[in-house]
Amino acid sequence: MKMKIKYKILIITVVLLTGIRLILPYVVLYYANKTLAEMDGYYGHIKDIELSVYRGAYILDNIYINKFDLISKKQTEFFKARDIDLSIEWGALFHGSIAGELVFDSPELIFTKDKVELDDVGKDGDDFRKLLKHFMPLKINSFEVKDGAIYYKDNTSKPKVDISLKKTHILAINLTNIVNKKVELPSTVNAQASVYGGNLNFTMKINALADDPTFDLNAEIKNANLVLFNDFLKAYGGFDVNKGNFSLYTEMAAKSGKFAGYVKPIITDLDVVGPEDKKDNIFNKIWEALVGAAGVIFKNQKENQLATKIRIEGSFINPKTSTFDTIWGVLGNAFIKALVPSIDKDINLNSVKTAKPENKTNSIQNNKPPEKKNDK
Fold this sequence. Notes:
Shape: globular
Mean pLDDT: 79
């Protein structure tokens, strides 16, 4: 009799666990979609959720988040992904902590002028962090982006602008589970992307747990085809090009509220005016001729490149660049020597001035014009 009771209890337990396992994805899906639908200024939806109990994970299938206009009731695309895998990072357990990892499959970020601006999204960052905590209550120690894309669209310009980074891969590791606390920059972020026939490479070492931004980054875009940027150049510059390659090199470091670095854009084999410009109106022809002439004047003839190096330094309260450095960079490249088309490797944490950053009050006061003294 006792054996029969034990078997009944076992069967009931198995049935209950099976039922919970079958029902749970639908409960989680309902809760997730309810959370996405109630976001302030945004609306999102998930098609399905898959649970993977054996590895402590679940997958959000076909998720999207759109910007929602409360007045017009229209939605503008902002984020979508084929799936997002949220799981426990088992490797962190060996170091005595519980942490999570995220893997994004084919995500897309779409910024649209006057609809979904980068600054607006930045202001909504707290909301997105709260949303992430709903889905992943653990601290995120690593994340990976596979085959991602970032778009910027301007449907108000003529011609319309639609530029992008594609085939993006990002890997960030050791963001919160810092094993060796003696290392100043223990976390790493590496990224690669395709940029209109060229390549983007990005490397950053960072202390993600520091009170102030503390990082050392190098990034480069090499040999992007300027012709493929013509809609962008026409919309914002009033000209297009017939030939040219664009590269950009930058280094940046920051600590103690200060930062230092440079941006070095280089254009090679530039050709602005060509036979296809015959159909342009007279004003466009004049403007493109002037742009082309400026490119010739400031071009380093030996290296056939137009370039400058813009140094940037300051505090995160009051960033500044030197106009003189910009002008000198153009003239120096054109008439003295060509800039080396590579990262200079002359920026690191030691480049950052460690003086205490100004507080906001002092910064505002220092920017005021001097008071006029009344002559008696």
